[in-house]
Design brief:
- The structure is a homodimer of 185-residue chains.
- The first copy, chain A, has a single domain, classed as Up-down Bundle (Four Helix Bundle (Hemerythrin (Met), subunit A)).
- Chain A contains 6 helices and 2 strands.
- The first copy, chain A, has a two-stranded antiparallel ribbon.
- In chain A, α3 runs parallel beside α4.
- Chains A and B meet through α1, β2 and α5 of A and α1, β2 and α5 of B.
- Chains A, B: This is DUF1993 domain-containing protein.
- Chains A, B: It holds the Pfam family DUF1993.
Chain lengths: 185, 185
């Protein structure tokens, strides 16, 4: 069933109905939102260049003294995407050391994570909704059935850090808006 | 299958495996995250009272002059939750006028939305993943298959506004952290 012509769809997705599966809930959305993050970072970088602002000022800014700076927010967005896809897809979580200090390095990390997301076979996700996912978060042992891990932990964390990154840009006056958060503009 | 004793689960969810459905992806998570928002607002309110800060200062604060203030972020979090559950559950979206000006009124709105979420019968969500959802967002007509509407529009918007609310509190020095975002602490 196709919707009426001329209506807006998120550009990263066709209008085709999707089958409900742990794969379809995960890889397409994380991948497209990571593209949107690249779009936001590209706009921030161009804006800084135009105004002769040292990119490091943006990359190290934070909203409160005990919150994480932009570069760490970006690293964590990618960590939650690759962590979920690896754990639900039954492969090792690829370790990515947190060494990025420039926009170019963050772009490279995002691209590597998107490549990883698309490298895990869809068939691996069969039944992942009730597979028990166990992990250490700081000092805490956590276990969740797969659906709860995805929708109650991974997705909230992913958007938490993505929105924190966006909010740091907005608070600095970078000319981005909600449309950019969704990859438009 | 039960996980080992002593492990941490989000308090709002049992450790039981969940069936993958549009209902199980939606109502339990929106409901529990709305509880977490109430927890965040309660801490903010208590902190303001203790320091003799007018609650309206927090409720009208924003991270950038052209971003929305805390009270509107809270209204929008609830709008995205009730919008998704109504549309996917095949009932009218209940209109809630945006009139709240106090913490007590915001708490009341959140409670009414949680009641609404739990009022929509689970059976209504059968097949909602490929039902076409059409809506107007500002001047734009949007249409999505249900899964794409939920995971690519409603969920990102819900967490966008929830995190924006959290970020406004953090930026004002309200003593909340990531644990509070997940309802602990």
């Amino acid at each position: 069933m196709q919707p009426a012509a001329g209506r807006w769809f998120p550009p990263h997705q066709s209008g085709d109905p999707m089958t409900l599966s742990m794969y379809s809930m995960t890889v397409p959305f994380y991948s497209s939102m990571l593209s949107n993050l690249e779009h936001l970072l590209s706009k921030a970088e161009a804006w800084a260049a135009e105004r002769k602002i040292d990119p490091a000022v943006l990359l190290n800014d934070r909203l409160a003294p005990d919150m994480l700076p932009l570069k760490r927010q970006v690293q964590l967005v990618t960590d939650h995407a690759k962590g979920a896809v690896a754990r639900l897809g039954g492969v090792e979580v690829p370790p990515f050391p947190d060494v990025e200090e420039t926009f170019a390095e963050l772009h490279d990390r995002i691209a590597r994570v998107r490549d990883f997301l698309h490298s895990v076979p869809e068939a691996n996700f069969a039944g992942a909704e009730d597979k028990i996912i166990s992990m250490k978060v700081g000092p805490m042992d956590m276990s969740f059935p797969g659906l709860q891990y995805l929708q109650g932990f991974s997705v909230p964390n992913f958007y938490f850090h993505l929105t924190a990154a966006y909010a740091i840009l907005r608070h600095n006056g970078v000319p981005v808006g909600k449309g950019d958060f969704f990859g438009r503009g």
